[in-house]
Amino acid sequence: MKIVVMEPLGVAVEKVNALAAPLIAAGHEFIYYQAKELNQAKLLDRVRDADIIMLANQPLSAEIINGCPKLQMLSVAFTGVDHVALDACRERGITVCNAAGYSTNAVAELTFGLAISVIRNIVPCDGRCRNAGTKDGLVGFELFGKTFGVVGTGAIGCKVAKIAAAFGCRVLAYSRTPKQELLDAGVRYVSLPELLAESDFVSLHVPLTAETKGLIGTDALAQMKPTAVLLNTARGPVVDSVALADALNAGRLAGAGVDVFENEPPIAKEHPLCGAKNTVLTPHVAFASREALATRAEIVFANIEKYLAGEPQNLVK
Hints:
Elements: E1 2-5, H1 13-25, E2 29-32, H2 40-47, E3 52-55, H3 62-66, E4 73-76, H4 86-92, E5 95-97, H5 104-119, H6 122-130, E6 147-151, H7 155-166, E7 170-174, H8 180-184, E8 188-189, H9 192-198, E9 201-204, H10 218-223, E10 229-232, H11 241-249, E11 255-258, E12 279-281, H12 290-308
Parallel strand pairs: 1-2, 1-3, 3-4, 4-5, 6-7, 6-9, 7-8, 9-10, 10-11, 11-12
Helix pairs in contact: 1-12, 5-7
């Protein structure tokens, strides 16, 4: 088998070589590219003869997939796979595996980093300190005692709900499948309109699907309290950025912490959220802790080993 890692994995090359060693010892060809190739023709040249492709969050189009006649398997070093042309994979019978669970702690932690940055004015406070200023006008509010709404209770949503409870929040959740562990912990599952109306914080943890695209738009934002904060560490298109910026600038929402956008950063300076009030933005970094990236690399190599052994894991339907 020819195994091609088409982009960097965010870990030291020594770790990649160590993880690849068993595959090479078994007689497989292994190629690791340590820089992204955005030119699609050149990218196709990289992967054209691959039996297995490993990638992270770089988009993989149907044109590239269909240009690889030998392709059997994709090992995606990411939880979400909306950047991969899955229909082309299904048509070809190509196995797709993801790295589910690698970033649960990292994303949950950054969610609260964003929340606290917004409500305690950390970014403006830093600016004040560096310019001989004071706290005047920058007194924030606490998480403790507030209602924290979690939209989507997969692994990350569950972790966020538990941390919110530890902060002393009343936790509401919305999901198609309630989790018994959260019910046992006192989390109350409600409808999405009820969650939006009652929550002081709304934190998004859903995958990007046809149903969730634009889930938080003008109508949903209008249901939220004007004192509420929206947190998005899920996928950018789940939120209508223009509607969110309008709500923030009009004072219909107190703040937002956003890590994900319609496209991968860098985002344009003209992006509506860049000029929105009371907003903390991060460049899709929630998943990117040293620990998470190391775990991710281990998972995607294990995916390949399991596939070759006829026991595929982390299958994407």
